[in-house]
Each structure stands twice: as C-alpha cells, then as structure tokens.
Amino acid sequence: MPDLAPARILGIESSCDETAAAILENGRLLLASTVASQIDLHARYGGVFPEVASRQHIRTVYAIVEQALQQAHLTLADVDAIAVTRGPGLAGSLVVGMNMAKGLALASGKPLVGVNHLEGHIYSAWVHPANTTPLPPAPQFPLLALLVSGGHSELNLMTDHLHYQRLGATLDDAAGEAFDKVARLLGLPYPGGPSIQKAAAEGNPQAFHFPRARLDGTWNFSFSGLKTAVLRLVRSFEEQQQPLPVADLAASFQEAVVDVLLTKTLAAARQFGAQQILVAGGVSANRALRQAFLNQQEFPVHIPSLSLCTDNAAMIAAAGYFRYALGHCDSLDMDVLPTWPLS
Ligand SMILES: Nc1ncnc2c1ncn2[C@@H]1O[C@H](COP(=O)(O)OP(=O)(O)OP(=O)(O)O)[C@@H](O)[C@H]1O
Ligand SMILES: [Mg+2]
Fold first, then answer.
1. How much distance in Å is there from the Cα of 197 to the middle of ligand 2?
2. CB under 8 Å to 63, separation ≥6 — which residues?
3. What is the CATH number of the domain that holds 29?
C-alpha cells in the first residue's frame, strides 16, 4: 500500500456509557484523549440503563470535545476531519455523538467520517502516545484479529486496511458479558471484568476445572455453558452452607476463558495464514489474557495499551484516519446504525 497522506483527526465516541473525544495524527500518534465514564451512574442497575446513558452524553459531550482540543493545544481549524462512532451501540447514545460531530462538521466545513465501533476497537492497536519513541511497528496484514468486548467476541481475518472476513463469533454471551454475569454470581461489583481479575489474583486457577467449549470445526465461541457451570457450583456451595471460594472460582473461570480465546485464535491464525495477531476490546485489558498472548512465541501480537482497551475516542479517530485517507467520507445525512456487523 502507498504511504497514506498525513492527517489530524478529531474522534468522538458515545455508543454506550462512555462519552469520549480524541485528537490523533496519522492514525497513530495520540495528541489528546478525554473519556467521561458513566460507570458510577449505572453501577446501581448492574448494567447500562439506556435512557440514563443518552441523557448523560448530552450533558457531557460538548465539554469533552472542548477538553480534547485544549489538551492538544488546537482548535477545530487545525483538524482535517471529524470521525464519529456510527454504530453498533445504543441508538439514543449514538445520536448524541453523531449530532455533535455533524454540528462541528457543518460549522467548520470539515469532512465527516462514520466509524464502526468494532473497527475502532481493532484500530486501537495502532495508537500510541505522541511522545512514544521509537514508534512500535504498525500491525501487518494478513492479520488475525480477536475482538473481545462487552457485546462482541469474534475472530476476523484482515487482509488489508478496512477489510474484514468474520471467521466466527460467539453463539451466546460475549466474553465481557460472561465476565460481568459471573462477577454478579460471585457477588462482585460491576463492571465484572476488572472485579474478576482482582479477585482471581488471590485465587488458584486450577482449583476448579470449568468446561471449555471448543466448538471444533468452527471458529465460533460459546460462554454460556461455562457461566452455567459456575452457577451450579455457586448453588452447591450455598446449599451446603459453605463459604464461597470467590478467589478460586474467579481464577478458574478466568483461566477457562483465556484458554479458549488463546487456543482458538492461534489455530485460526495458523489455518488462515495470518502473519500476526491482534487482540482488542474491553476484555483485552485482562492481565491473564494479555500475558497468555504475549507468552506464546508463534506470532507477533498487538494489544492496545490498557487505557485504550475499553471504549475511547482515540480508536475511533484511528479507524477514522484510515477511512478518511482511503477516501471514505460520509455526508451530513448519515444516520446511526445501532446494529452494524463489521463484515
Ligand atoms: N480487566 C478486565 N478483564 C476482563 N474483562 C474486562 C476487563 N476490563 C474490562 N472488561 C470487560 O470489558 C467489557 C467492556 O468493554 P467494552 O467497553 O469494549 O465493551 P462495550 O463497548 O460495552 O461493548 P462493544 O464494544 O461490544 O459494543 C465489560 O464487559 C468489562 O467487564
Ligand atoms: Mg466497546
């Protein structure tokens, strides 16, 4: 691929419960990133409450964009394009970021680029703070991308920028969803991923052997059997009025998830002739998962920095840069797409 033209992108993200803005140069160098999380607002519901989320985005989005520009010591005149999450996500949340982006595009005359949130998670692996020297090499194609987030778990083969062949996906719960549900079973706070990781640090991953749904012959995942196995064990401890070994259960559950994700991703990379592996999405923040992928020697691995694993706007600006540089801009009548598969 020829070198792409340099560009500075303002990214805006509001697909779920984070309002975020970022300024990124050339798809890689992060000049500023601001994220307003609503986790505390939703924690009492044990999950995201859609109407509360969209109203909070309305209150926050303007200040978040202003803050990102201020952090980068730039004004809107200094950016080349505005990238915004178009979907998938909560409709009422998506429209807030979309309308903000449209307003800015209209006022400034800058091009508007709609980005798939899942594409954003994948492109988070391209991003590094602006002062990173030397800049690590960019991911190379063909690339096997494992996307594991709160709403998605899928394996995509990328043969080039913006080209995705979905090999498989979860048949039931997403990996992040499984972490969240199992955390609830264990009485751990929302969001479940970080709580399980913390509890697991004190536990023995070999204490319980939980089932691994390998679904041989397909590249799909399934986590509901694993969740049910944890539920059964929790009930049996309760029936016998024994204290719940939370740390051991968390560690054994986490080990089972990591094992399945690692073995299936490596097998797919071999089968489809990938040169490298990329892991992204909220669950890629998991320490055990990162360690397992970094410990294997077979494929070079790209994993976003910790702050870019969960929702942020740097990833939207990164995917937006490649869309913009490759000539994919959108018009001001673009609608949001609450359901929008990557491939
Ligand atoms: N350290 C961790 N270990 C495991 N899971 C984690 C960790 N940190 C976050 N997660 C999980 O990541 C998920 C949130 O990720 P993300 O923000 O990418 O999801 P989302 O945006 O809600 O979903 P999607 O991107 O599919 O629309 C939650 O399910 C959370 O429990
Ligand atoms: Mg996400």
1. 19
2. 36
3. 3.30.420.40
